[in-house]
Design brief:
about 55% helix, phosphogluconate dehydrogenase (decarboxylating) activity, alpha/beta, binds NADPH dihydro-nicotinamide-adenine-dinucleotide phosphate, about 475 residues, two-stranded antiparallel ribbon
């Protein structure tokens, strides 16, 4: 019997996707560079469905029905190119090569073009949800040609996470669109995690709430507009006691956050497509600062953290004031989280323009409702916000009527929390940059006018006027008369 799909690369992600496919009734041909992983998978899980063991890529290709579908799940980067190079001579026109790893979207664009020239479909698929998701239903963001989705889509939809029965999988756009959307998902994830971290730090340092008390607060928040997977697991982490010391686990974990690169890619792409993803970039930088442990220790010796004689006393730890402060932090968190989503979605619109993708924000929001890390109740409301004819859609999430009231309601708290963070010296880079983003967008005049004046002064970069058409330059070093440029 021919297999429906082949999977090459059977480390944890590939093995779990292969098992997910087999459990859903597909016959899955298995291949790994070293046969040990193939055998281990068959031995441990061979009874979960129909598997075909193969030892070479030629055997793998041979075992597949047409058009062939080969899913590559090897280490991102050069190994993907190595596998493609070995695989493509074995395939025929119309066959589909799928890369479901964490590949950089520009590489996916390059690979798609190269394979298209050979008559093959190359589908870059964003997969979110980690090991567990790969096995039980991830959020799936496929790119590539629409034609390839006709035969591949139903399989991916079947193994994806479901939200109220709807698959969290839909074609997002051509070539690298799938990996791009996954990358932005991760960027939003960075910002979402950072704002939760800032909320925790403020409530602990200024509100005096111990981790266990905060676990309760986060659990409570998970019944509000903030309800989401990340809030849920935050409560679990804060409640965890360290087995060795008996202290909260969060107190014995080194405060240096790791990163694998997708947040950095999102920030870089934001710069490239000219989309101000300030919350996402600040989150990446916050992780970088956290990693500068030696520098932080030295700085702490010179400028100790905590309050000095000029700082007023922290007023948030009395009964009543503490509750008000916690509620302020909750609202600041919600508003900042909205900004992170607004910036991520905005960046998708800019990227769609840049790369010629026809991205549907409503559909993309629907893919993130289950199976992935940023799943949140908020996404249902985001879908409603973009459920309109293109000309009637809000230009920015913050302008959606579903959210304007929420922003207005959160605003006083947001300002109080950012002011408190600055007054008492607690870093809150994403709370404050998100507030600045909101204030920048709504400001009638920005100081950019002065910057244009400076640019014209030192570099004759010219400027435009508010009162007439044209481009102008002032003769700064001479008569200071304005001339048409
Ligand atoms: P790894 O990234 O650890 O890669 C290991 C696999 O790649 C092995 O099967 C290995 O084969 C194979 N491999 C490495 N180099 C080559 C090569 N030159 N030629 C052929 N095969 C090669 O595996 P993971 O399962 O952790 O991740 C797979 C992909 O999924 C990655 O892109 C990763 O970033 C992504 N990922 C996604 C997650 C998500 O949440 N979406 C979570 C984790 C990972 P061998 O056994 O012979 O060494």
């Amino acid at each position: 019997m021919s297999a429906h799909i082949g999977v090459t690369g059977l480390a944890v992600m590939g093995a779990n996707l292969a098992r997910n496919l087999a459990r859903n009734g597909y016959t899955v041909a298995l291949h790994n560079r070293s046969a040990g992983k193939t055998d281990a998978l068959i031995e441990a899980h061979g009874d979960e469905g129909e598997f075909v063991r193969t030892e070479t890529l030629a055997e793998l290709v041979e075992s597949l029905e047409r058009p062939r579908r080969v899913l590559i799940m090897v280490k991102a980067g050069a190994p993907v190119d190595a596998v493609i190079e070995q695989l493509t001579p074995l395939l025929d026109e119309g066959d589909i090569v799928i890369d479901a790893g964490n590949s950089f979207y520009e590489e996916t664009r390059r690979r798609e073009e190269a394979l298209r020239e050979k008559g093959l479909h190359f589908v870059g698929v964003g997969v979110s949800g980690g090991e567990e998701g790969a096995l039980n239903g991830p959020s799936i963001m496929p790119g590539g040609s629409k034609e390839s989705y006709q035969t591949l889509g139903p399989m991916l939809e079947k193994i994806s996470a479901k939200y109220n029965g709807e698959p969290c999988c839909a074609w997002v756009g051509t070539d690298g669109a799938g990996h791009y959307v996954k990358m932005v998902h991760n960027g939003i994830e960075y910002a979402d995690m950072q704002v939760i971290g800032e909320a925790y730090d403020l409530m602990r340092s200024l509100g005096g709430l111990e981790p266990v008390q905060q676990a309760e607060a986060f659990r409570e928040w998970n019944t509000t507009d903030l309800a989401s997977y990340l809030i849920e697991i935050t409560a679990e982490v804060l409640e965890q006691e360290d087995e060795v010391t008996g202290n909260p686990l969060v107190d014995v974990i080194v405060d240096s956050a790791g990163q694998k690169g997708t947040g950095r890619w999102t920030a870089i792409s934001g710069l490239e497509v000219g989309s101000p993803v300030t919350a996402i970039a600040e989150s990446v930088f916050a992780r970088s600062i956290s990693s500068q442990r030696e520098l932080r220790a030295e700085t702490n010796e010179v400028f100790p953290s905590g309050l000095d004689e000029h700082t007023p006393e922290v007023p948030y730890q009395e009964e009543g004031t503490q509750q008000t402060f916690v509620e302020d932090v909750r609202k600041a968190l919600y508003a900042s989280k909205l900004v992170a989503y607004a910036q991520g979605l905005d960046m998708l619109v800019s990227a769609a323009d840049e790369y010629g993708w026809d991205l549907d924000l409503k559909s993309i929001a629907s893919l993130w409702r289950a199976g992935c890390i940023i799943r949140a109740d908020l996404l249902d409301t985001i879908m409603k916000a973009f459920d309109a004819a293109p000309e009637d859609r809000p230009k920015n999430l913050l302008l959606a009527e579903e959210f304007t009231e929420a922003i207005n309601e959160c605003l006083p708290s947001w300002r109080r929390v950012v002011a408190a963070a600055a007054t008492y010296g607690v870093p809150a880079p994403v709370f404050s940059s998100s507030l600045s983003y909101y204030d920048s967008l709504r400001r009638d005049r920005l100081p950019a006018a002065l910057i244009q004046g400076q640019r014209d002064y030192f570099g004759a970069h010219t400027y435009q006027r508010v009162d007439k058409e044209g481009t102008f330059h002032t003769l700064w070093s001479g008569s200071r008369i304005e001339v048409d440029a």
